[in-house]
């Protein structure tokens, strides 16, 4: 009786072991398959900001402007005004034509003392005699290109001044045209608020 039980236990145990072996054999591929690859979704990131290389320029320090006093402004205005007057005087006194009897010389009378007016009248008479209106046309054009005050500065503290005016003179006749450069010296006296010419001299200018 005991032997039958032993045999029965052995058969049951053997069957169990056989069943376990079959189960392990079936599960072996599944237990040893490679682990699945986990897919990772990339996270979008903002691009790094672009910083170009930049060198700050060197800035000059701000300097305080030079103060201009009313006296300086008035003196400069007086000098500029006298230069303009001198240029206009030389151009008008040096621009004339036989067509109108050289009457344009009278335009500068008001800015000249009587002795200069007499000199201009004598110059006009000499031109009319040399180039009468009934003959060949004769004329002269004067264009000043610089003026400088060489004596009498500052004007606000002096009543006399001397100005040099450089100009080009073009002389035209019926058939010819000539050019020359001259320098005219004007001497002034101040009469009230006006400057009047007291002396005139002209000489060739060597450039």
Could you describe the 3D structure shown?
By secondary structure, the chain is of the alpha+beta class. The chain has a domain at 74-204: Nuclear Transport Factor 2, Chain: A (Roll), CATH 3.10.450. It contains 3 helices and 5 strands. A hairpin with a 4-residue loop joins strand 3 and strand 4. It is rod-shaped, with a radius of gyration of 56 Å. It starts with a helix and ends with a strand.
Total helical elements: 3
Distance between the termini: 156 Å
Helix/strand structural class: alpha+beta
CATH topology of the domain at 74-204: Nuclear Transport Factor 2, Chain: A
The percentage of residues in β strands lies in: 25-35%
- Binned, the helix content reads 25-40%
Computed Rg = 56 Å
Strand order of the largest sheet: 1-2-3-4-5
Q: Outline the low-pLDDT stretches.
A: 50-54, 62-68
Mean pLDDT: 82
CATH superfamily of the domain at 74-204: VirB8 protein
Order of helices and strands: HHEHEEEE
- What is the CATH domain class of the domain at 74-204? Alpha Beta
For the sheet with most strands, the description reads: 5 strands, antiparallel
Shape: rod-shaped
How many E-type strands?
Answer: 5
